[in-house]
Fold this sequence. Notes:
Elements: H1 5-14, H2 16-23, E1 35-38, E2 46-49, E3 52-53, H3 55-66, E4 71-77, E5 82-87, H4 88-104, E6 112-116, H5 121-133, E7 136-139, H6 146-156, E8 160-164, E9 166-169, E10 172-175, H7 177-186, E11 193-197, E12 211-213, H8 214-221, E13 231-232, E14 238-242, E15 250-254, H9 257-269, E16 278-281, H10 288-300, E17 304-309, H11 319-327, E18 329-334, H12 336-343, E19 360-364, H13 370-380, E20 384-387, E21 398-399, E22 419-420, E23 426-429, E24 443-449, E25 459-460, H14 464-472, E26 483-492, E27 498-503, E28 507-510, E29 513-516, H15 517-525, E30 530-540, E31 544-553, H16 560-577, E32 586-589, H17 603-610, H18 625-635
Parallel strand pairs: 4-17, 6-7, 6-8, 7-14, 8-11, 11-12, 16-17, 16-18, 18-19, 19-20, 31-32
Antiparallel strand pairs: 1-2, 3-13, 4-5, 9-10, 14-15, 15-25, 21-22, 23-24, 24-26, 26-27, 28-29, 30-31
Helix pairs in contact: 1-2, 3-4, 3-5, 3-10, 4-5, 4-8, 6-7, 9-10, 12-13, 17-18
The protein binds adenosine-5'-monophosphate-propyl ester.
Amino acid sequence: MTETYADFHRRSLTERDAFWAEQAQRVDWQTPPQQICDASKPPFARWFVGGTTNLCHNAVDRHAASRPADRALIWVSTEVGQERVYSFAELQAEVEAMAAILSAQGVSQGDRVLIYLPMIPEAAFAMLACARIGAIHSVVFGGFASVSLASRIDDATPRLVISADAGSRAGKRLAYKPLLDEAITLAAHKPARVLMVDRGLAAFERVAGRDLDYAELRQRHWGQPVPCAWLESNTPSYTLYTSGTTGTPKGVQRDVGGYAVALATSMDWIFGGKPGETYFSTSDIGWVVGHSYIVYGPLIHGMATLMYEGTPVNPDAAVWWSLVEKYRVTVMFSAPTAVRVLKKHDPALLKRHDLSSLRALFLAGEPLDEPTGRWIAEALGVPIIDNYWQTETGWPLLTVAHHIPGVEAVPTRFGSPGMPMYGYDVKLLDENSGAELAEPNQKGVLVIEHPLPPGALQTVWGDDARFVSTYWQSVPGHARRPVYSTFDWGLRDAQGYTFILGRTDDVINVAGHRLGTREIEECISGHPGVAEVAVVGVADQLKGQVALAFAVPRELPATSEAALALEGQIMKRVDEQLGAVARPSRVLFVGLLPKTRSGKLLRRALQAVAEGRDPGDLTTLDDPTALAQVKTLLHK
Ligand code: PRX
């Protein structure tokens, strides 16, 4: 007898503890959990209380013990023309060496280690080594520059930083070390040690007494056993910074046991992966997808994970498919933007390789538009599974799970990521009253009722109050239990499919990268020629959204050349301080910004006008010429 998905989902909530107790068996515990969920202090939740486990043991050691020669980590770089394959036994040796280095440098349980690395195997070794000894890693995306990095260093206060000489993108070397040195100069907190992986891509300066050479220390500590530390399930495993409404990024903090269980379950039920197969996620370790589905998820599930350094179109747009063929990839994970990039190339490239191993392509991080979804579905001939989630949730919140034994598969529907996953008690609320929307097809704020399932964030690093006020107090008058706001608008149709209609806050999504407009504004307004600035996200055919800046200069540029020069300077400033990912597509100069009489910036109106839409109710607008100016500029 098959159960309907709706019944199964309900059961995951009504029989919560029994449900997750069963899932907990997917991971090894040194001491089994004494309590499945402690929800007694809302909005906090503690999962698998009293159980002791270790992420590295579950991802590496247990597989190395039972099938040491099986592939664990496959690294391919089309940037430097290298490939390396590590078996589980080899991966364990690398991770132990890295863990020995960290321990020898005084890193112990609870200490933070900041990882600022390109997509190289050492990044995975570093994360797993931290997990092994109970140090808390904080990976900062390699595309971020010195000011972004400095604010994260100050928040995480790491004892040690692991970095490299350089990354590479589309053949262009990007030196990391000068950015890191600059960040440490800017930061108030000074990490005691910097462990440098020298790839031989860019010469760099070493700070005596602080900077260490990875190759040398690896040799010194090679073969030194470092046992996995058994950690209580709720011990923090890592923090990962993400953007919100304010200019200061939040350190999303995750646990050990809940995360391990959530990932193990999702690998089986959502992704349908099987131990021994190869999983390929095209994301970056600097993002949550990289944490959950390049490093931890596939390895915990005993799959080989393919880590790729390069672009989807180099040496040509068939490069990913050549890897699928070569490594017999069964499950692949990417983002809609990447598919839109591929769509611009010859479709014959998709037919050049044997893709018979591939069972499904999962896409997440931004809305999947129907033409893109249909194109790739036809080209690949496998299911395309849209899935919606966030850095905070750690694993899919909405999708269609096709691999739950005894449970009816929910068909995919283009335009909707699907339905709430097991464990998530999802509601749509009226933004003003907080009342649950009773009728289908109404737009509301997508929220999750307390407690969040295993694997979701525990808190904001070092700031419980911010966790509570940001996520749990933004929707007014909520009904029975505290609700977590996703800050996304949603709509549910009569069949229960949920559609995502954009963010309720000032977060924008550029090519699947989540960015805070406030951070970009703070950077631009620091330019001496700028009096005021507003950054909004506007729709873009390729990237989903791009950032557009409207700046009020201290003096309006007299000529178009002068305007271009100022625009260039501002972009350079963003590149240098935040990183090229945050660079606006244009900076437009205006005499004033559209504000209400009380001085509040009308961002939504600005965004609407920039997208050629009706700006809506403008009765509060102080000076109507402000929007008129913007319109004229955009039509130039
Ligand atoms: O706005 C939603 C959008 O990306 C945000 C989360 O981004 P991030 O924290 O970087 O995590 C990405 C994990 C995949 C969400 O609040 N988003 C993510 N997935 C989708 C999406 N929007 C529409 N459809 C999706 N499938």
